Amino acid sequence: MKLAATRDGFGEGLVILGDKNPHVVVLCADLTESTRADAFRKKFPNRFVEVGVAEQNLAGVASGMAAMGKIPFICSYATFSPGRNWEQIRTTIAYNQQPVKIVGAHAGISVGPDGATHQALEDVALMRVLPGMTVIVPCDAIEARKATVAAASINGPVYLRLGREKLPVITKESDVFTAGTANVLRRGDACAIVACGSLVHEALLAADVLKKEDISVTVINSHTIKPLDRKTITESARACGTVVVAEEHQIAGGLGGAVAELLSAFCPVPVRFIGIKDRFGESGTANELMRAFGLTHKEIADAVRGLVRKQEMKCKELHEAETALAYNRKKLLEAPKPELYFRTRSGESIRNIPHLKQALKKMSDDVYSHHVTEHKNDFAMWIRDVFGDHALADAIQHARSKSNAEKEIAKVLRELYLKLP
Amino acid sequence: MRKVTDVKKLQLLANTVRQDIIRMLVAAGSGHSAGPLGMADIFVALYFHVLHHKPNEPDWPDRDRLVLSNGHICPVLYATMAEAGYFPAEELLTLRQFGSRLQGHPHRLALPGLETTSGPLGSGLSQAVGMALAAKMNNKKIRIYCITSDGEHDAGNTWEALMLAGKHKLNNLCVIMDRNNIQIDGYTEDIIPLEPLRAKYEAFNWHVLELDGHNMRHIIDALDEAKGIYEKPTVIIAHTVPGKDVSFMENDYQWHGKPPTPEQASIALTELNAVKKSLTRGDLSGK
Q1: Which chain B residues are within 8 Å of A49, Cβ to Cβ?
Q2: Do A119 and A131 meet the contact criterion of CB atoms below 8 Å apart?
Q3: How far, rounded to the nearest angstrom, does the alpha carbon of residue B35 sit from its chain's CA centroid?
Q4: CA of B72 vs chain A CAs: smallest distance (Å)
Q5: Is residue A55 annotated as part of the catalytic site, yes or no?
Q6: Among the listed residues A203, A246, A204, A202, the one whose alpha carbon sits nearest the alpha carbon of residue A225
Q7: Domain residue ranges in chain A
Q8: Which fold has domain A1-165?
């Protein structure tokens, strides 16, 4: 599989935009080569502004240029922009509604040897809380290029999160990228894996492993974290019954937070989170760190297995509990000693509950209203005292009419016949 | 908009703006008093003499841009805009109220004619620099004006923007710095010494003018002079008296962030009316 970094795709996207949209300008805070803005600088020097190591100024100057009709892309590392200049982004770009595109490169733990100071693990949370901000995390170089081009057409601020490391190119040129519409890469029924960025490939690897164990999963590439594709994620969660979210970011406030907010309101199924667990990074190679921080297909597959097992156990427990209850209620079908039969006013004896159902059907209103008044319900009392079945007794008590009482009895009997061997 | 060239007319307008400010603040029950009163002359000079703008067409693309960086002095901005015809003067009394277009700190989308949203100090100059850069890219002869406070020169962001403006020789950019020597916690030189400001700006490749921010003739002349500087951006260090023309507010930092009570407002208005009378009589001609 071809390898390329998302920042490379971004650099290509900028040059495409430079050719087709004269309003696009690029600003950089002394990281032109490593953010891959250099190709644009070379080709369009008059539309490139180098601001130096000054990320607060980077945001403000871009806001001013946007106010004059430009579409500025501001490039730095994510720890500095939006890390250092969050307030300028909040006030002069987000609240001020200027269409500045904030490009946070070197995001995630896979930045590697530079260590924790340069590994942005909080940037999605920072941007996701700003009203009107679109947040995009591309999963490979092709998607990053498409996202860059798409960002210029979004009428508002956008945060584009990029990584340093080369990643397998898993999307195709022909795949459609639409901001806000997640791409379903696999369809299964046991669990829905919602991933973004580098974890999309890991999710696909996990899906392959699980397939061999007869666990089929849905894999969703949720490249846009805001606005989240509510429909795709909710429907998949409902269909599968369990969800695993995977991202190279703090679990708090990232894609995991976004998915949990959505599902807790609209489809509360069990969710597990693969992400950074409330700690800072450290130096190491990208691979070492991804393994050490539990961000590989192994952890994803384990999380799926755990959830699926739990669901199976829950189903089994539920089944057992229902059967046990049915056994308890079996009494309703049996007849007590004759002295405990119900004697109606018309002299009839009722043996058990199926018999009661038949008797009610034939019973005159006169007799029924003798036993059931505003203040008492002899049938309910009989069921409670003789059979000890409070649930049915209560249902009869509240039935309000003869035919409703019959229906309640029919419901219980139907359940019993289904459950009992 | 047609230029007002008569200095006395401009001075009278500044007096009206000051009276508006007092009425707005007492109606709002919160807000900043000293800064707005101190900047009334400069705002009137800008809106009635310097800016190319059309109050009845606020988004006219070729207008000059005015960025108010220290958003907290917005009562003076609102009052001057109302007097210039951007919106009805009655609306001034809605300052800071729920549903008002006159937000406690200016918000671009709330009121036509505002160029940006501001309040958090130190970031307005960056935006003005961005506008000046874009105007040059677009080959537009638009001028960008940016009002800053002395206090916000504590912020690193201000100096980041100053350096970039110097680098690009943004001669279409003119900063007017409100040098009134006060900020919330006290006198600027006690909080973080800023001087020598002229030397600092010069070292950052700026053209520096310095003047009495209440001398209307000098204000106009300096703003006109800045248009003729070709090699550099210009800063006008305007020495102003915070709380100008209200005796008990003048030069007292405690009036930075609070409004007058109704009783204090009535004294302030009496004093401002006295200034108006003497202006009309011609006692203060030329000043």
Answers
A1: 133, 164
A2: no
A3: 9
A4: 14
A5: yes
A6: A246
A7: 1-165, 180-315, 334-419
A8: Rossmann fold (3.40.50)
With CA atoms as reference, report the closest residue to B41 among B178, B181, B219, B174: B219
Question: By CB neighbour count within 10 A (0-12 exposed, 13-18 middle, 19+ buried), where does B239 fall?
Answer: middle
Residue to mutate among A28, A30, A49, A61, with most B CBs inside 10 A, is: A61
Residue B118 to residue A91, Cβ atoms within 8 A: yes
Peptide bond preceding B112 in cis form (omega within 30 of 0): no
Is A95 an 8 Å CB contact of chain B? yes
Q: Which two three-digit tokens encode residue A359?
A: 């008797």
Q: What CATH class has B7-281?
A: alpha beta
Q: Which residues of A273-284 are buried (b: 16+ CB within 10 A; e: fewer)?
A: bbbbeeeebeeb
CB contact at 8 A, B206 and B166: yes
- The per-residue b/e assignment along B91-128, b for 16 or more CB within 10 angstroms, e otherwise, is bbebbbeeebbbbbbbbbeebebbbbbbbbbbbbbbbb
Please state, in angstroms and rounded to a whole number, the distance separating the CA atoms of residues A383 and A392. Answer: 7
B141 touches A: beta carbon within 8 Å: no
A70 with B134: CB under 8 angstroms? yes
**The one catalytic residue among A55, A143, A165, A299:** A55
- Is A67 within 8 Å of chain B by CB? yes
CA distance B59 to chain A (A): 11
Residue B193 burial (CB count, 10 A)? 8
Instruction: Compute chain A's Rg from CA coordinates.
Output: 32
Q: Domain spans of chain B? A: 7-281
Nearest C-alpha of chain B: how many angstroms from A147? 25
Q: Is ipTM strictly over 0.90? A: yes
The fold of A180-315 is: Rossmann fold (3.40.50)
Radius of gyration of chain B (CA): 18
The per-residue DSSP string of A235-289 comes to HHHHHHS-EEEEEEEESTTSHHHHHHHHHHHH----EEEEEE-S----SS-HHHH
- Tens of each residue's pLDDT in chain A, 421 residues: 899 999 999 999 999 999 999 999 999 999 999 999 999 999 999 999 999 999 999 999 999 999 999 999 999 999 999 999 999 999 999 999 999 999 999 999 999 999 999 999 999 999 999 999 999 999 999 999 999 999 999 999 999 999 999 999 999 999 999 999 999 999 999 999 999 999 999 999 999 999 999 999 999 999 999 999 999 999 999 999 999 999 999 999 999 999 999 999 999 999 999 999 999 999 999 999 999 999 999 999 999 999 999 888 888 888 888 777 777 788 888 888 888 999 998 889 999 899 999 999 989 999 999 999 988 999 999 998 998 888 889 999 888 888 899 999 998 888 888 777 6
